[in-house]
UniProtKB/TrEMBL annotation:
SUPFAM superfamilies: NAD(P)-binding Rossmann-fold domains. This is NAD(P)-dependent dehydrogenase (Short-subunit alcohol dehydrogenase family). Keywords: Oxidoreductase. GO terms for molecular function: oxidoreductase activity. Belongs to the short-chain dehydrogenases/reductases (SDR) family.
Amino acid sequence: MKKNILMIGGSCGIGNTIAKILMIDYQLYVASRTQKGLENIDAQHILFDATKDSLDKSLLPEDLHGFIFCPGSINLKPFKMMSMDIFKDDMELNFFSLVNTVKEIMPIMQEGSSMIFFSTVAVSVGMPFHTSVAGSKGAIEGFAKSLAAEYAPKIRVNVIAPSLVDTPLSSRLLSNEKKREMMALRHPLKRIGEKTDIANAAEFLISDKSSWMTGQVIGVDGGISTIKTN
């Protein structure tokens, strides 16, 4: 019998790639603001805006074995240009909506289940213009470690912290070949991340292959967070 996995987000970007991989071996439930992009994905869709809605639990199974929260934002501006509304909006999308959703589904998470959240390499590596996103994603890392401690050994909680990945969300940063080359050269592995790089890590963390891992922040970042080659 296939295990039940709930994904928040999945209609585009990294979440969509994760859904395409997981639908093969799992019973997938995807909650997102639109069904566009999910036409060829074998999953039950739930119309859901993480910043506004409560989950319709009648559309969920009685048991969940995995949970992946994909929504995120990239607001890269000098701090002096960041209004408080931007900080509040990023916290609402990246952190508070995650906490609220976790509260809603925690009663149906089963023994041995796995949760995956997303952070950013900018939390561990100070980067200019990342104050808002790093602040809200940093909250996720602290929350995940505390949650992992509180619910061990029943539920595993891990975080994936990517560097720059080629997605619609990062299109402005990769809008021409010069920008792409410059961004690639910043990473020791000399390339920009692909959606499959992150999706493969998520597939591992949601599975029993990672059953001895919890409370971890996994850098899938081309080496930029830990090594320097020039």
